[in-house]
Design brief:
The chain is an alpha/beta fold. The chain is built from 15 helices and 17 strands.
Length: 406
């Protein structure tokens, strides 16, 4: 049984008030709250077990190294990866995608080569490719969403041409909630000899992921959305791609030997993990993933589907509210505007007065905003601890905003 009230008790921040109202936290798409077990793990690591990793033979260093390295296996289990050496630990999706851009794509691409993207990508999966466009003349080839916000996978596949060197696509849109059939894209791209990078920042939070089945070449996740600490994350890289990648950053821990005349690199994944890492953040991420797997990703997905369906029903009754993205089986993410002149920031401010936390802005998705003909939306994004009663509170706050701005 999925006991959401028991789960909510695991998150201390959910018991606080904001502006004299119980907190209704619906900004999970930006960053999720942390359960007490993660907070305790971080406190314990700093209070009793902190040391640098991989560098010492003393007790504290051994403990920190063992706990830190164990997270690599935890992430592999979470993502359905058989070989944990394909997991590179880092600070999150942004670092992971930049690592691929600089370490894999840059040495392989020249002027006229193409990267296929969907228009609903997050800036983390856009800007690194613009670097290649600016510096090497790489062409970005965009695939638009459909009228309902869905992404036609066949259009992505058809966009792969003889000059395509990479497909970079989200698994779940952070604005529209659209789920993408990345397996179909990966299968087709593999037949054409084109690697696929998947931004899993949102999808890995909301549904089971099995990368051995999906078959992508790269898959990035970020810890702060996974109920873990900020500054933590990982990227999965297929072994054959690891062999093709040059180091992204140089420094300690990613080398075997260094002399005045040469450097010998460590084997992957250590080859791509230069310097002192986010030790405690990564340990906290491992605890967060264990927490999620303890609840069961299927159970989390089913709970969020129920919340989504209830929210769809309630929001449909507000004929002055424009919801962006109505793709079938979308995630529990709702971006919306109000009829009239009310700006998303003003709406968000009114909702905050009622204790409801939502995001307002372009959501780091400029090309999608341009495609939709908007400058900003409000976004309510639900997580494993949200409830139907919180949907009701959101509706009440939206009705107040409409009354004030109509």
């Amino acid at each position: 049984m999925y006991d959401v009230e028991k789960i909510r008790a695991d998150f201390p921040i959910l018991s606080r008030e904001v502006n004299g109202k119980p907190l209704v936290y619906l900004d999970n798409g930006a960053s999720a709250q942390k359960p007490q077990v993660v907070i305790d793990a971080i406190t314990n690591a700093y209070s009793h077990e902190y040391s640098n990793v991989h560098r010492g033979l003393h007790t504290l260093s051994n403990i920190a190294t063992e706990k830190y390295e164990a997270v690599r296996g935890t992430i592999a289990r979470f993502l359905g990866v058989a070989d944990e050496e394909q997991i590179i630990l880092n600070s999150g999706t942004t670092e992971g995608i930049n690592m691929v851009a600089y370490g894999w794509a840059m040495p392989r691409m020249e002027a006229g080569d193409e990267i296929v993207l969907s228009v609903m990508e997050h800036h983390a999966n856009i800007v690194p490719w613009h670097f290649l466009r600016e510096r090497q003349g790489v062409q970005l080839k965009w695939v638009d969403t459909e009228a309902d916000g869905s992404l036609d996978t066949q259009k992505v596949i058809d966009a792969i041409g003889p000059k395509t060197k990479l497909v970079a696509v989200t698994h779940l849109s952070n604005v529209l909630g659209t789920k993408v059939d990345v397996k179909a894209i990966c299968d087709a791209a593999r037949e054409k000899g084109v690697p696929v990078l998947v931004d899993g920042s949102q999808a890995a939070v909301h549904m089971p992921v099995n990368l051995d089945e999906i078959g992508c070449d790269f898959y990035a996740i970020t810890g702060h959305k996974l109920y873990g600490p900020s500054g933590s994350g990982a990227i999965f890289v297929k072994k054959e791609r690891l062999a093709e990648m040059r180091p992204f950053m140089g420094g300690g821990d990613m080398i075997r030997e260094v002399s005045k005349d040469e450097v010998t690199y460590a084997d992957p994944p250590m080859k791509f993990e230069a310097g002192t890492p986010g030790i405690v953040q990564t340990i906290g991420l491992g605890v967060a993933l264990d927490y999620m797997m303890g609840l069961g990703m299927e159970n989390i997905a089913a709970h969020e589907d129920r919340i989504r369906d209830y929210a769809v029903e309630r929001l449909a009754g507000l004929n002055w509210l424009q919801v962006q993205g109505r793709a079938p089986d979308k995630g529990a993410i709702f971006s919306f505007t109000l009829d009239g002149a009310a700006h998303a920031h003003d709406i968000s401010t009114i909702l905050d007065k009622k204790g409801v936390a939502v995001r307002a802005g372009h959501h780091c998705a400029g090309p999608l905003m341009d495609h939709l003909g908007l400058t900003a939306t409000c976004r309510a994004s639900f997580g494993l601890y949200n409830t139907e009663s919180e949907v009701d509170t959101l509706i009440e706050a939206l009705e107040l905003a409409h009354e004030l701005f109509s």
